[in-house]
Amino acid sequence: MSALTLDLARLASGLRLCDLSDPAQHWAKRAITDTLACALAGVNEPAVRLAVGVLPASPGPSLVFGTGHRLHPLDAAQINGIAAHALDFDDCNLEMDGHPSVSIVPGLFALAEARNASGAQVLTAYVAGVEAEIRLARIANPAHAERGWHPTVTFGVIGAAVAAAHLMRLSPEHTATAMSIAASSAAGLRANSGTMTKPFHAGQANRNGVQAALLAEAGYTARLSALEHKFGFLRAFGDSFDVDPGPALDGWGKDFALLSPGIAIKQYPCCAFIHCAIDAAAQLRGDIKTAQIERIEVALHHKRLKNIDRPMPKDGLDAKFSTQHLTARALIDGTVGLDDFHPERVLDPTVVALAAKVALVPHEEGLSMGLVHVWLADGRHLSAEATVAMGRDPSNPMTQSQVRAKFHDCVPPSDQSTALFDALMQLETFPSLAPITAAICPPPPK
């Protein structure tokens, strides 16, 4: 295998804002904006509050989103990373089989404040990191994810290291060192999906990625072939040592992974594998009364069912991975929203009773496709199908107004939040992040 680690580091460290096409810049800014919105919505979740009470934290220059507190960049990166993933509302990517932005944006903002970086530097560093992690996933998946690793942290920590190294203007060799240090902290199990440990993974990816870049800058050493080494990342996490590195390197700076297959902004705050089932169930809502339903069948891809067959979720986090529960909620309400994961909504007897009628069956069609069948007491059989969930693919993107609407679902509308959205969508024009982080802080009491 070629010198994958160093080759990828050379490409990433050489990326400049002028290399980014207008669509790449636009989609990157949407993803950054969406990630910050998810963090602000998640900052008061139990997973964040409990972590803040336990994890060590030192004062510093970096903002804890949604608060007036400022911490050391590593501490802010970790807490903000947990917050951004706490609701499972942040973006995702099919090749990565995980969440690309949440592993990078919180740490990047924390580091950018400490280094007084510009918006253009942040935007370019974000793209470098996202491209690196998705392209690495391209040659390691599906074996990597199917072994049980959580790609959001295992690929994400390397993307975070690349983004941080780019922001710090490290050389290709130091960038490769940061990647190799980060590779030694890549860990996270899909078994912990539906628990607080899943967002903790995102916090670790941010902290460890930034830490790896800081260590590399300070002169720390690591083998510059940690990805492709015979005892390295690809061999340890996958099925084979003999992996073609071409797809990770070819078309860099031209064929952006964030555009194709793209970064998918979520319409619903739950596991993306279930979104097409929700869409299909919502299509049927107007044609039936839930009291008439005798039986429900949901068909999803067999590879997806392993993690989303949870007939009796015990709490809101667990419910985010329950196809049965979310299909029932969509049949009742026509959608799934943030409030639906509060305890009283998860344990709503009407939803619980309807979810008990849901049977899951595997299919071999498109990876995202969801098909819902409903049999009614009057003998009718209705069905609906969704092939691509909104926002999941470039063929069915969220419009800019829909992205703004989701932002304000997460951050209640106000002059300050509107200004924040508009500023983030012009990120590259800001000489520093100070005006943006000022808008992220809560308004002073009147």
Automatic annotation (TrEMBL):
Residues covered by the MmgE/PrpD C-terminal domain: 268-413
Originating organism: Celeribacter baekdonensis B30
Sequence ranges assigned to domain MmgE/PrpD N-terminal in this UniProt record: 7-243
InterPro entries assigned: MmgE/PrpD_sf, MmgE/PrpD_sf_1, MmgE/PrpD_sf_2, MmgE_PrpD, MmgE_PrpD_C, MmgE_PrpD_N
Full protein name: MmgE/PrpD family protein
Lineage: Bacteria, Pseudomonadati, Pseudomonadota, Alphaproteobacteria, Rhodobacterales
Family from the record: Belongs to the PrpD family.
Pfam families (alphabetical): MmgE_PrpD_C, MmgE_PrpD_N
Annotated TM spans: none
